[in-house]
Each structure stands twice: as C-alpha cells, then as structure tokens.
Design brief:
globular, ion channel, transport, sodium
C-alpha cells in the first residue's frame, strides 16, 4: 500500500511540475529558470506545511514523498545552475542560487509554522 501511495503522489506531482514548467517557459521564456524556481519554492512551502501539521504517515507518503518528490526537482536546479555558469551568466547563477536557497528555506519555515497552527 505504501508503494502505491508514493507512486500515485509522484505521478500527479510530475504532471504538475511539467505543467507549471511549461507555462513558465511560455510566459517568461528561457532568460531565467523561473519554472524550476517557482516549483521548488512552492514545494518547499507545501512540504513545510505538511510536516508542520504533523499529518498521518499515509499523507506523508502520498503528499510528501510522492507528490512533492515528483513535483520538486533538485537535479534540474543543479543542471540549470551549470548551464548558467557555462553560458557565462555568473550573476544570474548567483541570483538563482541565493534566491532558491534563501526563499526556499524561508518558505519551508513559513509552511512549517502555518501547518502547525
């Protein structure tokens, strides 16, 4: 049952990531990795909220491990950092790094706090 919950969540998380990423590219282009940035920030907040709420293991598996695992994307974030550096766009790479980490951790804390209310 646990594997099914994780798989179902991952399926819908990956679809949501694909959709948001596609919409972001259509709206903002490829100037900056907005899609991955938005996805990871939203995911940080929602995962923080999930754990702050101290939900049952079933919901952690479905929404946390499954959906958020399929939705957020650390590997794409890393690849986009390398691509920005390779294109000699160091300022964008630094901005992406700082914004992703500072805002991401801030959103995880905010979600955790809100979830625990």
């Amino acid at each position: 049952m646990n594997i099914l919950l994780v798989g179902m969540g991952g399926f819908f998380g990956a679809i949501a990531r694909f959709y948001i990423s596609t919409v972001a590219k259509e709206k903002y282009g490829n100037v900056f990795p907005y899609g991955t940035f938005f996805i990871n920030i939203i995911g940080s907040f929602l995962l923080g909220m999930l754990f702050g709420a101290e939900v049952a293991k079933m919901w952690v598996l479905l929404c946390g491990t499954g959906f958020m695992g399929g939705f957020t994307t650390f590997s794409t974030y890393q690849l986009e950092m390398i691509q920005l550096i390779h294109k000699r766009e160091g300022q964008k790479a630094l901005l992406y790094f700082v914004m992703s980490n500072v805002i991401g951790i801030g959103c995880a804390f905010a979600g955790f706090y809100i979830g625990g209310m």
